[in-house]
Amino acid sequence: MVEMTVRRRRTAALSLVGAAGALAVAELVGSWSSRSGGLLVVAQVFHHPMLFGALALTALAAAALIGVRSLAVRTLSVTAALLVTLLAVPVFLFGSSEHQMTMNEAAPNRSDRHLVVVEGAALIDPLWWVYIDEGSGLTKRRWEVGYFNGDASSNALVEASWMEPDRIRLVTGEGEDSQMHLVDLSPESGRPLRTLSMG
To answer: Which residues cross the membrane (predicted)?
Structure first.
């Protein structure tokens, strides 16, 4: 009977370690897909480092509680997990902001290509990210076009629009600071031929 209990505890602990490993692999896949040109659906589902990290850490702490008999090792494992979690909370609260999609417009005569603008903030500075989404369904890819930090009014994104199916126009600043940026896209893939970073 004792032999069976030890075996079950070991199996449960190894299962929890395997779950933590699977979460780490899922986050790596999501992180890889969140790069420019990556699969959008995969990035949206698997690229959540804080959530997956917390779940993996919880699984490892539970594995230590179940699989290790030494009270000192169990106490240290749980204490370390709690400390990391407590330190991660302020990073999560100050490092994450609400990002909101404010534009999602199809290209002229191309329903598979969209100009997307996402707005957010870094404490008090407004931020904008501009993307091209190419394709549909599970094969939709997201290409980064530009990043704009509105800490200076000349860097603020004022307008994003289509000129033609393979060219977009971005306007930054207002009045005398206004600048127009034209970005050409690859006709086949929608990949921008240049990217912008302002601010």
So the answer is: 50-68, 75-94
Tell me what pLDDT residue 174 has: 85
77, 68 Cβ separation under 8 angstroms: yes
- Indicate the pTM of the whole model: 0.80
Reported confidence tier of residue 1, pLDDT bands at 50, 70, 90: very low
d(CA 72, CA 1): 26
Of 85-99, 148-162, 168-182, where does mean pLDDT reach its minimum? 85-99
Q: What would the two tokens of residue 142 be?
A: 């997201």
**Across all residues in the chain, what is the average pLDDT?**
89
If phi > 0 it is left, if psi is from -120 to 50 it is alpha, else beta; for residue 77 that is: alpha
